[in-house]
UniProtKB/TrEMBL annotation:
PROSITE patterns: CARBAMOYLTRANSFERASE. It holds the Pfam family OTCace. The lineage of its organism: Bacteria, Candidatus Nomuraibacteriota. Keywords: Pyrimidine biosynthesis, Transferase. Catalyzes the condensation of carbamoyl phosphate and aspartate to form carbamoyl aspartate and inorganic phosphate, the committed step in the de novo pyrimidine nucleotide biosynthesis pathway. InterPro entries: Asp/Orn_carbamoyltranf_P-bd, Asp/Orn_carbamoylTrfase, Asp/Orn_carbamoylTrfase_sf, Asp_carbamoyltransf, Asp_carbamoyltransf_Asp/Orn-bd. Residues 152-298 form the Aspartate/ornithine carbamoyltransferase Asp/Orn-binding domain. This is Aspartate carbamoyltransferase. Belongs to the aspartate/ornithine carbamoyltransferase superfamily. ATCase family. NCBIfam families: asp_carb_tr, PRK00856.1. The keyword S-adenosyl-L-methionine does not apply. One of its GO terms (molecular function) is aspartate carbamoyltransferase activity. It comes from the Bacteria.
Length: 302
């Protein structure tokens, strides 16, 4: 039994195994010959925060592999958490019904508590502004698929590294690979948190901060993410910055920079950018299905 609770539990070899399995699954998927390796298994998807891609791709992944799914969206209102049940008790109950439990929760770090009482694999599908491991896996998969490598990359992240769990997660995973350089692009008020930057320093990562897009065409990858409105304490601050930095058609024209976005897209990328071949965010979302199929097999040791 393996949990996926935190980015910090993964080494380079672990990541390689998941990405290789995802590639094999993509080949199977496109040939229409997916092995039903999870037949007679039950996967629980319990989401205390909204989700489109993560929840539905996990549920689709389970179904494609032959499993059955039990789920709750808006679980903060539609489960006994609304009555005050603790995450420990909720986890114990879910483990008594399902073979794998996938949870999204607004509280950063809550999976440490869930993992201590779980006797079935637990997957962190996002804990507040902290981490989102499986999103980072599919981001790595997309970069490797299109670049052919995960090292010697010049990667920019925008535009809310202060609050974005996906930016944090991908940067931490990319720090396992050699000679990568990171640029965090955002208004100064949304700079990465000091603890996150200290973590990158301790990993030997090279990075810098900027508040503009003047060097966009120099990046190998630009990883955009919307401003995280739900994490702002002051909504006026959100409105102040929400359109201060935008990837436009004119900016992308003539560039080879791969553009990724975990979605949903709000203001950060103009819709006209969608038609460029280096706009990969919808392919990225599709890759989430293959990666999450691989993840389900990984946690069950299959």
């Amino acid at each position: 039994m393996k949990h996926i609770l935190s980015i910090n539990q993964f080494k380079k070899d672990d990541l390689s195994k998941i990405l290789e399995r995802a590639s094999w699954i993509e080949e199977q998927y496109k040939s229409g010959k997916i092995e039903k390796l999870l037949e007679n298994k039950i996967i629980a998807c319990i989401f205390f925060e909204p989700s489109t891609r993560t929840r539905l791709s996990f549920e689709t992944a389970a179904l494609k592999l032959g499993a059955q799914v039990i789920s709750a969206e808006n679980a903060i209102a539609n489960t006994s958490a609304h009555k005050g049940e603790t995450i420990e008790d909720t986890t114990r109950m879910l483990c008594s019904y399902a073979d794998v439990v996938i949870i999204r929760h607004p509280e950063a770090g809550i999976f440490e508590r869930a993992g201590k009482v779980a006797n079935k694999p637990i997957i962190n599908a996002g804990d507040g502004g902290n981490q989102h491991p499986t999103q980072a896996f599919l981001d790595l998969y997309t970069i490797k698929k299109h670049m052919g490598r995960l090292d010697d990359l010049n990667v920019a992240f925008g535009f809310d590294p202060k609050h974005s769990r996906t930016i944090r997660s991908l940067a931490l995973l990319l720090s396992h690979f050699k000679n990568n350089h990171f640029t965090f692009v955002c208004p100064e008020a949304l700079n990465p948190t000091p603890d996150f930057l200290e973590d990158l320093r301790n990993r030997g990562a090279s990075f810098k901060l900027t508040d503009n897009l003047s060097r966009f065409k120099e990046y190998d990858v630009f990883y955009a993410n919307r401003l995280q409105e739900e994490r702002f304490e002051n909504k006026k601050e959100f409105e102040k910055y929400r359109k201060s930095l935008v990837i436009t058609k004119d900016l992308v024209q003539g560039s080879k920079t791969l553009i990724l976005d975990p979605l949903p897209r709000i203001d950060e990328i103009e819709t006209e950018v969608d038609y460029f071949p280096n706009a990969l965010y919808f392919d990225q979302a599709q890759n989430g299905l293959y990666v999450r199929m691989a993840v389900l097999l990984y946690v069950l040791g299959l």
